[in-house]
Amino acid sequence: CRSRLFAYEKSPAANRIRIIHALPGLIRENKRNSADAPAAYRLLLKFNGKYSCFLNAEDLLSRYIVCVVTLLMLPADATLWRAARHLNAPMPLNPKLLSVATAVPPFCLEQSAVAAAAHRGFADRFESFRALSRVFESSGILRRYAVRPLEWYFEPLGWPERNQAYLDGAVKLFIDAASKALDAAGLRSSDVDTVVTVSSTGIATPSLEARAAEQMGFGSDIERIPVFGLGCAGGVTGLGIASRLAQSRPGSVVLVVAVELCTLSFRLDELTKANIVATALFGDGAAACALRT
Fold first, then answer.
1. Residues whose CB is less than 8 angstroms from the CB of residue 150 and which lie 6 or more positions away in sequence, other chains included
2. 15, 81 in Cβ contact below 8 A?
3. Residue 288 neighbours by CB distance under 10 Å
């Protein structure tokens, strides 16, 4: 029952958390007069007293059982909100977005230069390249940024070289974006209670925020939440996690940093449509924001 309760605490209806602790007393208070009972208690009565053995329970576990059973009957819609208003339960605070900042690596790649380099690397080996090369113009991209100069990508590169480039570049971009976001919010690194780091284009163990912690000046008790492998969905997922953390801990500061170094996935030996399109589209960069309730 306790594990089911925790599942409901994480449900999209954020007010369930407060109702959970108020419902047992409310049910006992109204059990003598079902006509005036709130919606939650009336729903409970519809089950022919099947759970009435818990209504007078005083021990904590049985009170939780009452909550879980009642919540199983309640949809996460207006019924729940009516019950919340009946309880005068305070609404959860909405996190505020304090700042947003971005950072890019030092090497600027003009699209015309990338198109010429791609022609040099693929045209003689990939029959479909000439037809696909129009994507370099139709994409609408003028320039991108990368952690390495253009010629570096034409060298024979294995996983160790690519991931080392990721570690070097990602930590620098993390520090740059995070520092800008905190400065814009008027905060110090020591003010941050939780940092959510989003990245999918390299492997870092320890994770990026741990590698950057000393230079950033984070507190020793900071909570770290690395989010890996979600690709394009990583940014919105990380922001959602940060929002819920800030909401659950009023007054705390949550920093979100997303770092992606997509150019490191460039493959000169992969003669596919997907690789040509990716070569025409993606670059490297980072973004950060600070939240607080």
1. 107, 109, 113, 114, 117
2. yes
3. 29
Cα–Cα distance, 85 to 280 (Å, whole number): 54
Look up 232 and say whether it is catalytic: yes
Catalytic residue among 1, 108, 232, 262: 232
Q: Please give the Cα distance from 49 to 44 (Å, whole number).
A: 8
- CA angle 42/48/50 to nearest 5° reads 105
The whole-angstrom distance between residue 131's C-alpha and the CA centroid of its chain comes to: 38
3-state secondary structure 16-55: HHHHHHHHHHHHHHHCCCHHHCCHHHHHHHCCCCCCHHHC
Evaluate whether 66 touches 27 at the Cβ level (below 8 Å): yes
Mean pLDDT calculated for residue range 159-168: 96
Highest mean pLDDT pick, 66-80, 166-180, 259-273: 166-180
